[in-house]
Write a structure and sequence with these properties.
By secondary structure, this protein is an alpha/beta fold. The chain folds into 2 domains: 258 residues, 3-Layer(aba) Sandwich (Aspartate Aminotransferase, domain 2), CATH 3.40.640; 126 residues, Alpha-Beta Complex (Aspartate Aminotransferase, domain 1). Helices cover 35% and strands 15% of the residues. The protein has a 7-stranded mixed sheet with strand order 1-7-6-5-4-2-3, with helices on both faces. Strands 8-9-12-11-10 form a 5-stranded mixed sheet. Helix 2 runs parallel beside helix 9 and helix 12 packs across helix 14. The longest helix has 20 residues. It is globular and about 75 Å long. It binds pyridoxal-5'-phosphate. The site of pyridoxal-5'-phosphate has 16 residues, from helix 3.
């Protein structure tokens, strides 16, 4: 028995159970939690790993031990559940913990279908590690519905995994269409929605059975917390197995990190709105630059997935884009070396803009072209960002 985060909430505030208030309101007010003891409008951090038993040996308050559950974690989950329009969330120590829990919670042995363009570390886990856990993966071009259909093995395929937009080419998959394919085969559709965020896409509304986030990225947004999340549309047997998997593997997020993540989500809507606008401005600007061969951004009308993205994403196309430097790999690496405002680093979704020669980190076998620079647009002045990349590209024609 687990009690909700309502325990420390005053009745004179919004609650995540309130149907009339928009997700942005819950996010801005951290779920409306008011500390009943002090009236503090920032929820206190619950650090306890263990809880007092009642004299008759019961745990009526619903908390027993810190590995299965924690109130600060639960408050964080309540906000995310609301943002995604789900019924429950599980936050964990990293995006990889969330994703691997999602696969390990499947009835195994089983078969899964995953994109050939997806977050690199998870692709490596599926390709090299998952088999020993009884999970066999077929990688497909997930922008092609027929390819997904053909990869499905009726009775064996338990999950279709999508990432949209997908790292680092920002390929777009049709969530609703893939959901139909999954459901016809008796499989679940899971979506890594890290880049879209619940501000732009709510995969559960398009028929997905699971949403995964690297909360390390946009949800936290400040490059100072490693966290992951799973959001569920139902509390069914699969959800129960996911709860058990996180508990047994000890994957729960720590309370300090949960508190930081809760704080980060308060500004999610304004950050993502600004970052989407800025990324669009960057994409339009560099699409005209003779030193750039190709700008990859779902918001550009010429982009392969633009039509689906326009249907599936609302309020913007996200803060991630990639540019391919015409003069090739060495010129791309040189440009990344010359930036001053942009930070030369991996990861994404933070307030500071990051530039990365992505192929260097993904290595051999990666579908990432060697002339590609991945850009995570932050909250700096867009003019400064454009000017800095202009000067960094120099005379790379
Ligand atoms: C970063 C990332 C992950 C992994 O998250 P970690 O917190 O680094 O474990 C998964 N998917 C996407 C799309 C990511 O960007």
């Amino acid at each position: 028995m687990i009690k909700s985060a309502q325990t420390s909430r005053d009745t004179s505030t919004v609650s995540t159970d309130d149907k009339t208030v928009k997700p942005a309101t819950f996010a801005a007010q951290a779920g409306g939690v008011i500390d009943t003891e002090t009236g503090a409008i920032v929820p206190p951090i619950h650090l306890a790993t263990t809880y007092l038993r009642d004299p008759d040996n019961q745990y009526r308050k619903g908390y027993i031990y810190g590995r299965p559950d924690n109130l600060t974690v639960r408050q964080c989950e309540d906000v995310l559940t609301k943002l995604e329009g789900g019924v429950a969330s599980l936050v964990s120590g990293s995006g990889m913990t969330a994703a691997t829990c999602a696969f390990l919670a499947l009835e195994r042995p089983c078969h899964v279908v995953a994109p050939d363009v997806m977050y690199w570390a998870l692709k490596l886990w599926l390709a090299e590690d998952a088999k020993s856990y009884g999970i066999e993966t077929t990688f497909v071009d997930a922008t092609n519905l027929d390819a997904i259909k053909q990869a499905v093995r009726p009775g064996k395929t338990k999950m279709i995994w999508l990432e949209t937009p997908a790292n680092p080419l920002w390929s777009i998959s049709d969530i609703a269409a893939a959901g139909k394919v999954a459901h016809e085969a008796g499989a679940l559709l899971a979506v890594d929605s890290t880049v879209a965020t619940p501000v732009l896409t709510r995969p559960l509304e398009h028929g997905a059975d699971l949403v995964m986030h690297a909360a390390t990225k946009y949800l936290n947004g400040h490059s100072d917390v490693l966290a992951g999340a799973l959001v569920f549309p139902r509390k069914d047997a699969y959800y129960d197995r996911a709860v058990r998997t996180r508990k047994m593997l000890g994957g729960i997020l720590g309370p300090f990190e949960a508190s930081l993540l809760l704080r980060g989500m308060r500004t999610l809507h304004v950050r993502v709105a600004h970052q989407s606008q800025a990324a669009m401005a960057m994409a339009q600007h560099f699409a005209r630059d003779p030193r750039i061969g190709h700008v990859l951004y779902p918001g550009l009308p010429g982009f392969a997935g633009h039509e689906i993205a326009s249907r599936q994403m609302g309020g913007g196309f996200g803060g991630m884009l990639s540019v391919r430097v015409k003069a090739g790999e060495a010129a791309a690496v040189r440009a990344a070396a010359n930036v001053k405002v942009w930070k030369r680093a991996t990861s994404l979704g933070g307030v500071e803009s990051l530039i990365e020669h992505r192929r260097s980190i993904e290595g051999d076998g990666s579908p990432c072209p060697p002339d590609l620079l991945r850009l995570s647009v932050g909250l700096e002045d867009v003019g400064d960002l454009i000017q800095d990349l202009e000067q960094a590209l120099g005379s790379n024609i």
